[in-house]
Structure formats: structure tokens, C-alpha cells
Amino acid sequence: MTLFLNKKLAYQIENDVIEGNKELIEAWNTSGFGTSVESLELANALAVYGGTDCPINEAVGLGMSSPVDEETLDEIEHFYQAHDHPTVIRVCPLAHPSLVALTKNRGYVLNGFSYRWVLDLDAWIPR
After folding, report:
1. FRET pair for 70, CA 20 to 30 Å: which of 11, 60, 99, 101?
2. CA 84 to CA 98: how far, in whole Å?
3. The pTM is what?
4. Where are the domains of the chain?
């Protein structure tokens, strides 16, 4: 099996992350845990804040369907500032170059990579 990353696949993966986060937020907020997870949805992206140690405190999907403008980044930064939390943006390598330019101009730094692996279950032969 040969699989090549392309814009269409990258967009689908980012959308799956956004939809998964939305489902997680809904489940958490209806669970009765006494805390809530908040989100900001804009420009086909989702920013999430669920408390200081929440593992999905990040913005995802930025730049996947359109260029990113100053106003969008301002809104995301204000969302996290309102929670006294640093702005974390997970950037897909195939996001529009405007996202990299904007974050670079604002002094953002890269702190790691995340990977998505794909396995074609129809072609997989267990050994």
C-alpha cells in the first residue's frame, strides 16, 4: 500500500480532530463532572480550553480551508488570554502559509510534532 499525504487527506484528518474534540466537549459538558470545557469555533478551526491540565487545550484546523488573517489569530489569542492560558496552535504542514507567517511574526515557537499514521485494514496482513 502506498499512501501520499495531500491537501485533501490533511484537511480530512484535521476535520476529524475537530469533530472528535467537539464530541469530547459535548460528552464532558454533559457528564456532570462539575467542570466544563469551552471552545471557540471560527474560520473552520476550533480552539479548546478545558482547564490548566486539559490535553486538548489547543487550536486546530487553522489554515486548512483558507488563509489565516490577523483578526482570526487575535480572537484565538483573546480566547486563551481570557483563561490565563498560553495560546497553543497545532499546525498541519499543509496549512496555508499565512498561518506560519502570522505566528512567526508574533513570536510563536515550535514545540513539537504530532503524527497521524494510517493503516489500510483491507490490505493489512497480520504476521
Report:
1. 11
2. 26
3. 0.85
4. 7-24+37-105
